[in-house]
Amino acid sequence: MNDFVAGLIRWTLRLFVVVVGLVFFVCLLAMVAVLALAWGLRSLWARLTGRPVTPWVMRMDPRDGWSTVYRSTARWTAARGSGPAADEPPAPGARARELPGAREVVDVEPREVR
Description:
The structure is a single chain. The chain is mainly α. It has helices spanning about 1-50, 60-80. The longest helix has about 50 residues, at about 1-50. The mean pLDDT is about 80.
C-alpha cells in the first residue's frame, strides 16, 4: 500500500510540474502574440496613413553612465583642490566627525596621524 501511495504522489507531482510548465509556456506565447499583434497593427496603421514605419528602439547610450560618474567625481575633486590651503594635508577628523565619547576612552594609546 505504501508503494501505491508513494507512486501516486510521485506521478501527481510530475503531472503538477508539467502543468505548471505548460501554463508558463502558454503565458509566454500569449505575451509574444500580443506584442506581435501590436507591432503588426502599428505597422499597418503607418502604411495606411503614409508615414514611415519607425522601429521600436530603446534610446540609451552606454557612454551616458560613464560620463555621469566622471562628472560627479570631477565635481568632488574640484571642490577638494580649491581652497586657501590646498597643499596642506587635511586636518584629522576633516572627513568624518569624532564619535561621541571618544575622548573618554583611556585604555588605548593614541598614535600619530600619518
